[in-house]
Structure formats: structure tokens, C-alpha cells
Amino acid sequence: MAVDIGEMLNRLLVEGARHVDDACDYRLTGVPLGDVTLPTGRVVACDPLVHPGETPPFTVTVPPGRYPLRAWVAVVHPAAALASGSPPSGSPTRDRASLARDRPESDRRTAALHLAIRDEPVVAWEPAAVPDADRALLDEDGFWAYPVDSGIGTLADECALAALKTWTYARVERVFLPEPSPPAPGALRAITDPATGAGVVAVSTGWGEGAYATFVGRTAEGEVASFVTDFRVV
């Protein structure tokens, strides 16, 4: 059955959206990460530590400029604890949502990375594609998905990633591999191409290693509104 991309992404891009499975209760919250400079307007999604300057940009381009980046973080509570919890004395009608807010979270995971091109409603979604996509990089739903081996991902201009490829390993390690790693979204950033001001903002990717698809949102007029990478948390 074909995947409804809009339904899938609507679970990720709404403040306070909630998803429950047998193991966990997730609540989504948006975390602004500042602006990303796109000198060429050619957007790349990749693991910036393993494949910088190697992954081709998407076939969809946007006008050069600065665009806001946001991570959507899933705040995780154990569902078993919620199921077994009982309302406090004097509050017999409290629901699971109220219990979730009062119980300590067990984890945080980056559920999506969202690059906003236009501040307009998205009315249609499409898979983001790269030229001559390797069929080995198509996920089970048939979407092109970039591989992640380092546990971080980015949406950046191709010139920023080409510049990052010239860095020494010691410099990459110092900037993008701190110990301990910051909590999700674990945003790490650097200007990699001083001539244009382009840089890379890297975030933790869902549950870590894997392959993650990106989607393009369009406005009612067909203009590009956003790029969103789904890290398959919910």
C-alpha cells in the first residue's frame, strides 16, 4: 500500500503531537536551530561526518538565501509506566496525557529535521530525489534514504559540505564529536565555507545509525515550502 506522506509527517511537525505504541509514549516539540545559509540553493541531506561532499544535492532547488532550521524532538515516556500509573488521590479523572506530563521522561530523540523555505502552509508532499539515485539506497517504501553511520545528519548547501570535506579529522572531531554528546537534538554547528557564510548544522538521528528519507513540501502555488527528513522515531 502506498505511504501517505502527509499523514506520516503530520505526526512529526505539530507542537505537542502525541504518539503511543506498546513501549513508549512520545510527545513532539520543536527546537529552533537558527538559520542555514544556502549560497547555491542546492540542498543536500547526508551524514556530514562520513559522506561530506559526496552525496549529490536534491533535484529540487530553492533561491539562494538564509532559511530557518528546526529539529522536532520526541520526548519519550515509558508506556508501561503510564499504563500502570494511577491518578493521585483526589484526581480520579486524570487521563494518560496528564500522567505523561507529570512523569519523568526516559529519553529524547530527534524525530525530524525541518528546513523552512517559505512560511506558508504545505498542501502537498513529495519524496526528495537525487539524480540517478542508487536503487540500493531506496528504503522499504521506495524513498531515497541517505545512510547514517556516525549517528548524525544534516540539511545543508552543497558548498558547505564540499568545504567540510577539506577539514582535517582532528578539526572535525573537535567540532562535531564532543564528549559527552549533547542531548537530542544534539545540534552542533560550524561555518565551513567562510567565503559564503555557509555552514553545517548537524543533529542526532533518531535511534542512531540507519537510512533516512527526506521530503519536499509545496505550497498551494506549487512553490517549495520546506525540506523535512524523517528519522523514523514515530
UniProtKB/TrEMBL annotation:
It comes from the Bacteria. Residues 82-107 are annotated as: Disordered. Pfam families: DUF4241 (PF14025). InterPro entries: DUF4241 (IPR025335). Residues 93-107 have a biased composition (Basic and acidic residues). Residues 82-92 have a biased composition (Low complexity). This is Uncharacterized protein DUF4241. It comes from Couchioplanes caeruleus.
